[in-house]
Predict the structure.
Amino acid sequence: MVATNTVPINVAGALGDMVDDAKLVRGNAPPTPLQSRDWFWVWVAGWTAVGLGAIIAFVIVRRRRRRRVRSLIGTLVASTPKPRRLDMTSERALEQLLAI
């Protein structure tokens, strides 16, 4: 239960207007707790799910981009848009393969 500031309430009833007998009017009722929906944890769970989905999608996209396979077709080497620099040993090995 949360304590808050008091709120003034003006109750305009119809019972006193229709019947003037004081015995028919109800007495004071004790305070009733008010219930309201709290959507905080729903929002936290939703944004956590969105964040995890974005991270998983990012990882999947990065893995797919890295899995490009280079293949030797005739004398051409199919490669990604930015071919990797090869060291001297692998360049010589490719030259010998192409010579065959």
About this structure: The chain has a mean pLDDT of 77. DSSP finds three helices and two strands in the chain. The longest strand covers residues 71-73. The two ends are 85 Å apart (CA to CA).
